[in-house]
Design brief:
alpha/beta, seven-stranded mixed sheet, about 25% strand
């Protein structure tokens, strides 16, 4: 393929939903081919799960859904990487997922949360999987709250739509800076 970096985002579905979304199987194959070709690949939420699945790791329902603003913590392995140099050890980020993944073989575990052990990974210094949403904006959070309202069912790791929308606007700037750092440090 004639590209340097592949970015995969996801929607309200699971990696295994191939009966309803048959294109998911082709997407996994495309991701596997891009990784094998030495391309930089970035996956967010379903995108991270698709990368994991494409590389042979299991994707499965997390013990609990994680929807809203909750912190992730960098792992010790992440803090030793240039990719994460200077990033906060703990950062509140936006989540909207019910599934999680095992780490692909050879991947470095980058982040975890109290609700979900595998929040981020890096493979070969160029394949980045993020379970959470650093790309969130007030507009995107409002939209997902509106379109995914049926998923906002009170639970330990699920905030109300009002709580999700009421966060300090500086939080968006912080996650945006973190995303910029990660993207700038990944090879093209």
């Amino acid at each position: 393929a004639d590209f340097d970096r592949l970015v995969i985002m996801g929607g309200p579905m699971s990696v295994g939903d191939t009966a309803e979304h048959p294109w998911l199987a082709a997407e996994r194959a495309f991701i596997a081919d891009a990784v094998a070709a030495g391309k930089s690949v970035i996956g967010v939420c379903l995108g991270a799960q698709l990368i994991a699945a494409a590389l042979g790791a299991r994707v499965y329902p997390n013990a609990e859904k994680e929807i809203g603003w909750f912190p992730v913590q960098l792992t010790e392995q992440a803090r030793a990487l240039d990719l994460c140099d200077g990033l906060p050890a703990s950062l509140p980020v936006f989540h909207w997922h019910g599934d999680t993944f095992e780490l692909p073989a050879g991947a470095v575990h980058l982040a975890e949360s109290d609700a979900c052990a595998h929040q981020a990974f890096l493979l070969d210094g160029r394949v980045l999987g993020l379970q959470f949403h650093l790309e969130s904006t007030p507009t995107s959070v409002a939209a997902i709250c509106e379109h995914g309202a049926d998923e906002v069912v009170p639970a330990r790791w699920v905030q109300s739509a009002a709580e999700m929308r009421a966060v300090d606007q500086d939080l968006y700037a912080g996650i945006g800076r973190t995303l910029e750092v990660l993207l700038d440090r990944l090879p093209v």
